[in-house]
């Protein structure tokens, strides 16, 4: 039997946390805020439409979350990825999820290009699934593992890009889940989420 987790809804606070890294102060937008979740744990256990992968340019699997996704999906994922001509930094490519409970995997090339590339990676990891009528997407904390991007900056890019995408496209998505594998990342999201998704 597959192991699965409930997605917890985080209690978002009304006011910004006071942390200087939470500078941008967004308006309350119910349609956007109600679609955000924080999940702490293993992204490969989520039974949703699409999980984003912190893939490398070859899409052929390595360590970290990519390794976990390929282990869970099985060899057919590697086989399909081998037909896709890789994935440039900032782009996203969609594949089956095979042995995973998610319907599809969206592989994003996040590393190697700084904040702009990471922004494009998040944007395309939302845009590609929505073009394919997928309505729930989960993200690991892309670029903060092997690639070594500073987690606070990576979380800021993640939250800002998702907020901006949902502002324009909230009717196309039911839920965007930030998946924190490390306790320190969970704490970062908890600190920074209220500034990007303030509650009314
Ligand atoms: P990158 O090259 O983008 O840094 P990594 O896979 O090394 O890729 O790390 C990206 C993030 O994925 C890190 O925050 C790491 O803690 C997290 N991570 C690793 N394994 C998992 C997993 N099974 N589920 C969710 N997140 C994971």
TrEMBL record:
Give the superkingdom in one word: Eukaryota
Q: Which PROSITE patterns match?
A: MACRO (PS51154)
Q: Which Gene3D superfamilies match?
A: Leucine Aminopeptidase, subunit E, domain 1
> Domain named Macro: which ranges?
23-197
InterPro entries per record: Macro_dom, Macro_dom-like
Q: Which GO terms describe its cellular component?
A: nucleoplasm
Question: What does the record list as GO biological process?
Answer: DNA damage response; peptidyl-glutamate ADP-deribosylation; purine nucleoside metabolic process
Gene Ontology MF, one: ADP-ribosylglutamate hydrolase activity
Show the Pfam families listed in the entry. Answer: Macro (PF01661)
* Protein's UniProt name: Mono-ADP ribosylhydrolase 1
Organism of derivation: Cyprinus carpio (Common carp)
According to the entry, what is the taxonomic lineage of the organism? Eukaryota, Metazoa, Chordata, Craniata, Vertebrata
């Amino acid at each position: 039997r597959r192991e699965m987790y409930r997605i917890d809804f985080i209690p978002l606070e009304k006011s910004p946390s006071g942390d200087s890294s939470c500078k941008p102060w967004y308006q309350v937008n119910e349609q956007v805020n109600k679609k955000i979740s924080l999940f702490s744990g293993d992204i490969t256990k989520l039974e949703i439409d699409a999980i984003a992968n912190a893939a490398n340019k070859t899409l052929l699997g390595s360590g970290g979350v990519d390794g976990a996704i390929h282990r869970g999906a099985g060899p057919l994922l590697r086989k399909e990825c081998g037909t896709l001509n890789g994935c440039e930094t900032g782009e996203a490519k969609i594949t089956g999820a095979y042995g995973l409970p998610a319907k599809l995997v969206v592989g994003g090339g996040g590393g190697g290009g700084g904040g702009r590339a990471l922004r494009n990676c998040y944007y395309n990891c939302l845009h590609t699934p929505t073009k394919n009528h997928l309505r729930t997407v989960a993200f690991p904390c892309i670029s903060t593992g092997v690639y070594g991007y500073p987690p606070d900056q990576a979380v800021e890019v993640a939250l800002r890009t998702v907020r901006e995408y949902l502002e324009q496209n909230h009717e196309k998505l039911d839920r965007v889940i930030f998946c924190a594998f490390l306790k320190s990342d969970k704490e970062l999201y908890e600190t920074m989420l209220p500034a990007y998704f303030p509650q009314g």
